[in-house]
Amino acid sequence: MEGSKGFGGIGENGSSSEGRPPNPLAAGCRQCYTIDNAPVSCKKTLVRHQSLVKTRTSDISVEPELTVQNHTGDFTPIVRSGAWADIGFRSSMEDVYTCIDNFLGDCGLNNVVDGPNAFYAVFDGHGGKHAADFACYHLPKFIVEDEDFPTEIERVVASAFLQTDTAFAEACSLDAALASGTTALAALVIGRLLVVANAGDCRAVLCRRGKAIEMSRDHKPICNKERKRIEASGGQVSDGYLNGILNVARALGDWHLEGMKGTDGGPLSAEPELMTTQLTEEDEFLIIGCDGIWDVFRSQNAVDFARRRLQEHNDPVMCSKDLVDEALKRKSGDNLAAVVVCFRSEAPPNLVAPRARVQRSFSAEGLRELQSFLNSLAN
Known about the structure:
Layout: E1 15-16, E2 31-33, E3 39-41, H1 42-45, E4 80-86, E5 95-100, E6 117-126, H2 130-144, H3 153-174, E7 181-190, E8 193-199, E9 203-208, E10 211-214, H4 224-232, E11 237-238, E12 241-242, E13 252-253, E14 273-278, E15 283-289, H5 291-294, H6 299-313, H7 316-329, E16 336-342, H8 364-378
Helix pairs in contact: 2-3, 6-7
EC number: 3.1.3.16
Region (Disordered): 1-22
GO cellular component, one term: cytoplasm
């Protein structure tokens, strides 16, 4: 099974806080690599997206309808993560993920924030895996190397998506064989703050006391808002596909596709939508996954399934594998990648519905009326 071998050296199955996959920051946070793999100083050579270099956090468009209301109360999350992926029924594997439970610590930036600091992401490549691998490696580096991180998280994360897209365009200009695209979803836990940035149709779902809270929105061309943006940018939606080619409205890469992107923008956007919330004691875990998972799981269904599994074994690695295996049983036709992030050390509690104080029953008259109604249906 290809899924058990890891993907591009970035994510390996069975990852967790005790044995997580290699992450792009562990080898030395102050270095990055040019196209010919020569190490250089990231602080001086990162490709800055000019429109966002000096932008304030308040200038980044964060959809108001995508903002989860904060809850009061003191709570310190204890992050534990696991991930799993599988090639599924496809001939090649283009899904990539990364799990970094100690995001700042791996860079030597300890004592910057109180509480946990973690980074998780999934990338669903199309037209090849190069864009997914590139984004998985460079996106977290652009975030952590920004001098405004973590004080201006939303601006930094939005900027990092666009910088990654621009950097990949430059890489493709030097090597045409890299031409491809990828959707991207990143989740950061900084103290009690959960920030999710999404560009594409990957999805993040938070379990809040058993209830599914969607932390992202699928960017499909047929969505009204995306369709309006596409048409305003000179594109069109044909049979549900952007310009008749892509079934996503936002993605990184795809610079080789005519009419999709340009220096002045285009119908295919790399700008993420962001959603934030303050974690509370009611927040149990987060599921992020590529669309192969969500093709066969509704958000609440996935939360219910994962919650039962965590109650059984309390292992985010096994839970991720359970989600992937169940998606295979449900005949998902895509590559599969799932990450489960737990926010507490104990398993989710059993939820017992309170008994009604008043016992209700049918009266004899009510039963007769019901029987008469059923008889009329039979006739």
